[in-house]
Structure formats: C-alpha cells, structure tokens
Amino acid sequence: QQQVKQSPQSLIVQKGGISIINCAYENTAFDYFPWYQQFPGKGPALLIAIRPDVSEKKEGRFTISFNKSAKQFSLHIMDSQPGDSATYFCAAGYSGGGADGLTFGKGTHLIIQP
Amino acid sequence: KAGVTQTPRYLIKTRGQQVTLSCSPISGHRSVSWYQQTPGQGLQFLFEYFSETQRNKGNFPGRFSGRQFSNSRSEMNVSTLELGDSALYLCASSLSGMNTEAFFGQGTRLTVV
Fold first, then answer.
1. What confidence tens digit (pLDDT) does each residue in A55-96 have?
2. Beta bridge mates, A35
3. What is the pLDDT of residues B75-84, one digit of tens each?
4. What's the Cα-to-Cα distance from B50 to each of A58, A92, B63, B66, rounded to whole Å?
5. Using alpha carbons only, how large is chain A's radius of gyration in Å?
6. Best mutation target, B99, B104, B106, to test chain A (most A CBs within 10 A)
7. What is the C-alpha separation between B43 and B35, in angstroms, rounded?
8. Which residues of chain B neighbour A98 with C-beta distances below 8 Å?
C-alpha cells in the first residue's frame, strides 16, 4: 500500500526557531514531493515542491531536504513566525503521464509561540 | 487570476439523500482532482478528471462519482449519503495533472445528519 508517513503530529516552536517536519514514503516510483500549508477554514496551499533529482530546494524561509536512498524528505522553516502557525502536509505523487492523485501524510499541526 | 472556486461552501444533508458539489478550476487548467478530508483519515484522493475524462479513481465506493464539462468545470456527486461521508471535500486544479502544481479550493463542508 502506498503510504506517506509524517511526523510529528504536532509541533510547538518558539518564534525565531527552526521548525522541522519529516516524511517517509514507501513507493520508490514517486517522483514529485510537494508540501502544503493549510489554515483553518481554507484549502491547502502549495508551499514548495521537490523532485528526486535534487537533494535540497530553498524558497525564502522554507527548505525541503530530500534523501532518496532513505526515502525521506523534510521541511525546514527557518526563523519561524506566528503567522506560520498552520497544519502542514507532505505529499508524494508521480510525474509524467497519468495521475493517481497525491498521497498525503496525516499532517503536522504547527504552533509558533510568540 | 481567479483561484479555484467551490460551491457551495457548506451543506447539510440527511442520510440517504444525494448531493452534488461543484468546482471551477483556474482558467486554463484542464485537470481537476477531488479529495476528501477528514480528521481521522486526512486527505484522500477521490478521482481526477482531465479533458472530460476520468483518468484515475481512488479507493472509494461507487456512490462517489464525478464528471467534467468542456469548460473544465467539474462536479462531484455522492448518492445514498452516509454519516461517514461528512467531510471537507476539496478540489484541486492543475495545468496537466497532479504531477504539476496543484491549487486547491476552499472546499465544501458536507455534514450528513
């Protein structure tokens, strides 16, 4: 069964600290790994995505690290701010033709304390 | 550029009824995917439509169906509603499929009583 395991389930970080969320996948055919941010009452918003041909991708304060051999990838939020408080989902899917949809992790509820 | 629009935002239905949800994708996007979000199961893929054709379907019973129109707008139908169908239903649009950037709507909150 295709699964994406996400941890931790919840995370509390002080303002200015680094928030780290980890995901592990099973299907080695996955080759598209996005992260989504969701605020209460809103749909998920694409934050950043990576493909397995790179080990790291950075966009502003958000960085994805990817370890293909370990089948793991993680999201780092640098200088975390109260406005970053949200639920974060990792996902995995296939690039190229066709689509099975994205397989999502269960989510991490992140709270940034001022 | 307008985002993904889902209507209605909220719905309350009775067990046994059926419901139709609507999704208007971003202009120019040809792929629309539907997801069910619940606290227990998280986000689960329902199906994806591309150019009016269902390309793939997740592991949901046949009570869940959908379609896509020539203008890429999509509808999702759930028949014979069960209490367990209460969820946030999200649609996502992308240019060519879930392998590319997908943008989600705000969802339709369905409550079955």
1. 999 999 999 999 999 999 999 999 999 999 999 999 998 875
2. A48, A90
3. 999 999 999 9
4. 31, 20, 21, 12
5. 14
6. B99
7. 6
8. 55-56, 97
Task: Specify burial of residue A29 (Cβ count, 10 A radius: 0-12, 13-18, 19+).
Answer: exposed
Strands A103-104 and A45-50: what pairing? unpaired
Structure tokens at B50: 């591309």
Type of residue numbered B102 = A
Calculate the alpha carbon distances from A82 to A86, B47, B82 in Å. Answer: 9, 35, 38
Q: Which of A66, A70, A109, A84 is nearest to A18 (CA)?
A: A84
Q: Do B33 and A93 touch (CB under 8 A)?
A: no
B69 and B52 in contact (C-beta within 8 Å)?
Answer: yes
Evaluated on CA atoms A110, A62, A19, A89, the torsion sign reads positive
State how far the alpha carbon of A21 is from the alpha carbons of A63, A83, A108, A114, in Å. 11, 17, 7, 20
Instruction: Check A44 against B58: CB less than 8 A apart.
Output: no
